[in-house]
Design goal:
With 77 residues, the protein is α+β, with helices and mostly antiparallel strands. The chain has a single domain (2-69), classed as 434 Repressor (Amino-terminal Domain), CATH 1.10.260. It is built from 4 helices and 2 strands, in the order βααααβ. It holds the Pfam family HTH_3.
Length: 77
């Protein structure tokens, strides 16, 4: 099964930027960014992804989000 992985934490580390600094730079609440990074948000706001990309000067969305293979599924149907 595939799952969306948000790579913002890795990007912040590479750019030596704090979560608070990113929040200030892109105008997204610190709490919302933290939830994205920690996988606590089920929905991704594309407007947020665009603002993050602009703030971090990213051209390819794959740097921000990617699909990863995971074992099993916690959401039995």
């Amino acid at each position: 099964m595939k799952k969306v992985k948000v790579n913002i934490g890795d990007l912040l580390e590479k750019q030596n930027l704090s979560l608070r600094a990113l929040a200030d730079k892109c105008g997204i609440r610190h709490a919302a960014l933290s939830e994205l990074i920690n996988g606590k948000r089920q929905n991704i706001n594309f407007g947020h992804i665009e603002r993050i990309a602009n703030a971090l000067d990213i051209e390819n969305i794959n740097e921000i989000v990617s699909l990863i293979e995971v074992e099993g599924d916690n959401h039995d149907i």
